[in-house]
Amino acid sequence: MKASVTFLLHFAFIFSTIQARSIIPEPQALRSFKVNNTQNVGSCSYSVSITTSCSSPRYTRDQISIAFGDAYGYQVYAPRIDNPRSRAFESCSTDTFQISGPCTYQICYVYLYRSGYDGWLVDTVTIYGHYTKAVTFYYNAYIPSDVWFGFNLCHGASASSTSSM
C-alpha cells in the first residue's frame, strides 16, 4: 500500500511540473512578412468576415489591411479594408468584405496590419472562397500597430517569404 501511494505521489509530482502547451495556435507578429502586389489580379472572389470583440474600443479610425493565401505562394492582399464612414470594426460587430485576388488552394495563412492609435481587438477572421473550404482564424487578441499580425498554418511552407513588396 505504501509503495502504491508513493508511486501515485511521484506520478502526480511529475505531471504537475510539466508545463501544459496549448494546441490552439496563437497569432504572431511577423516583421519579415512581404506583401505580393503583383498577384492581385482579380480572378477569384473571397468573402472575409471579421468579428470585433465586445472588449474592443467602441470604434477604430485605424487603417486596416489584410493579406491571406495558401502554401504555394498565392496571396490575396487588400491594402485598406477600413472605412470610418461605414462604421466598420465597431465593438461587438461582424464586418464582411468582398475581396478579389488570385485563385488559391486552401487558405492556410492570414495576417492583419493596423496603423493608428485607437487600437482594435479582433475575435475571429473567417475567409470563404469559391474553390476552397471556409477557414476561421481565432485571434482573440489586440492587433499591434505597424506590424503584420496573424497565423501561418501552412506547415513549413514559406507562403509569404518568397513574395516581394
Topology overview:
Blueprint: H1 2-17, E1 28-30, E2 44-52, E3 63-69, E4 75-78, E5 94-101, E6 109-115, E7 121-129, E8 135-142, E9 148-152
Antiparallel strand pairs: 1-9, 2-5, 2-7, 3-4, 3-6, 6-9, 7-8
What does this structure look like?
The protein has 165 residues and is mainly beta. It contains one helix and nine strands, in the order αβββββββββ. It has one helix spanning 2-17, and strands at residues 28-30, 44-52, 63-69, 75-78, 94-101, 109-115, 121-129, 135-142, 148-152. The strands form two sheets. It has a five-stranded antiparallel sheet with strand order 1-9-6-3-4, with no helix packed on it. The chain has a four-stranded antiparallel sheet with strand order 5-2-7-8, with no helix packed on it. The longest helix is centred in the first third of the chain and has 16 residues, at 2-17. The radius of gyration is 20 Å and the shape is globular. The termini are far apart.
